[in-house]
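dumping this here before i forget
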Amino acid sequence: MNKKQKLIILLLFIIFLLSGCATAPKLSPMQKRAITTRIIEGGYDNIFRSILTVLQDQGYIIKNTDMNTGLIHSTIDRETAFGSQFAQALFFGYVADKGSEIDVSIMVNKVNESKSEVRINMQEAKYGQSSKWSGSGKQNVKQILDTEIYNSIFNEIQIEVKRREALEQGDNSIDNNN
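structure:
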């Protein structure tokens, strides 16, 4: 590779990095709460267990739960494809982007017998090497505030709550017929 080709690749890489640095508008705590919190209808136990089911269905590893406090903590590892890691090692001499870990904590607060408030906090930590001579570690940790992601998770939780209620109703009707 000649000097001119290396310079072009370096410039393209810098442009790529700078385009990824666009800043999102700052959200107030109330705006963040509006994105991350929903009232879900159903019994507390059913909602809590439905959240666990949804997280496991999506591949999250449940790290900790406490039904008394309503806390659920889980993570998922999203490794960058081997081909991409190989290309990074070939061009830069190290792997800058090895993947990311998404950390999810959820609080379930009972409002009354038929409703609970569910608040989700999601953070993504990218990991890799910062230079050829450094070890691999977390590079960037940021809170995820994409309304589509939260809406999707809340919808899945509501569907699972309804599915469990339907199963419970089916069990009760069988018991009543005997």
